[in-house]
From TrEMBL:
The keyword Magnesium does not apply. Participates actively in the response to hyperosmotic and heat shock by preventing the aggregation of stress-denatured proteins, in association with DnaK and GrpE. It is the nucleotide exchange factor for DnaK and may function as a thermosensor. Unfolded proteins bind initially to DnaJ; upon interaction with the DnaJ-bound protein, DnaK hydrolyzes its bound ATP, resulting in the formation of a stable complex. GrpE releases ADP from DnaK; ATP binding to DnaK triggers the release of the substrate protein, thus completing the reaction cycle. This is Protein GrpE. Its main location: cytoplasm. Residues 49-76 form a coiled coil. It is found in: Cytoplasm. Belongs to the GrpE family. The gene is grpE. Residues 1-25 are annotated as: Disordered.
């Protein structure tokens, strides 16, 4: 009987351990399910938060790009306005240049009598006041004769060999050139020494 009792005790103990271990397993499964349910419940929130964070980053990037584009367009508009103000008189001056040329040609005529002399003096006064007004707007004549040839400021229409001038120096000016501030509006037509 003692043998049977000990076997029964062992069986009872092993069944208790099995029950305890199965109860432990069930508890572990229950905890795992609870954690999974929590994850399922929090995962949609986490994924929604991540999605919103991505959308926020995209919106911030678009905002920064728009702001940079706006700043660039404002800067371009300011530069265009400054250039328009700087060269506002260019079209008027360009239209007046042939009149200046005609004045210069007329003033080179030798007066034959007193009436022609007084007429030339009046033309000279008009020419001077016109050139002063144009200088006030930033017009300057380009120096040519005796200066080195500069293709940005001079337009060579002839070449000669003259021992009185160095090579590549302007010998004669056929038509006066002009700059408006820092911009050449008409290059000088010149004869250049080879």
């Amino acid at each position: 009987m003692t043998k049977e009792k000990s076997t029964l005790n062992e069986e009872l103990q092993s069944s208790t351990e099995t029950e305890a271990s199965s109860e432990g397993i069930e508890e572990v499964f229950a905890e795992a399910e609870a954690v999974t349910e929590e994850n399922v419940e929090t995962n949609p929130e986490d994924s929604r938060i991540q999605e919103l964070e991505i959308k926020l980053q995209d919106a911030e990037n678009r905002y920064l790009r728009l702001q940079a584009d706006f700043d660039n367009s404002r800067r371009r508009a300011r530069i265009d306005l400054e250039a328009a103000q700087k060269y506002r008189a260019q079209s008027l001056i360009t239209n007046l240049l042939p009149a200046l040329d005609n004045f210069e040609r007329a003033l080179q005529v030798e007066p034959e009598n007193e009436q022609t002399k007084s007429l030339l003096q009046g033309m000279d006064m008009v020419y001077r006041s016109l050139t002063e007004a144009l200088k006030g707007e930033g017009l300057e004549a380009i120096e040519a004769v005796g200066h080195p040839f500069d293709p940005h400021m001079h337009q060579a229409v002839m070449q000669v060999e003259d021992s009185n001038f160095e090579s590549n120096v302007v010998v004669e000016e056929f038509q006066k050139g002009y700059k408006l501030k820092d911009k050449v509006i008409r290059p000088s037509m010149v004869k250049v020494n080879q």
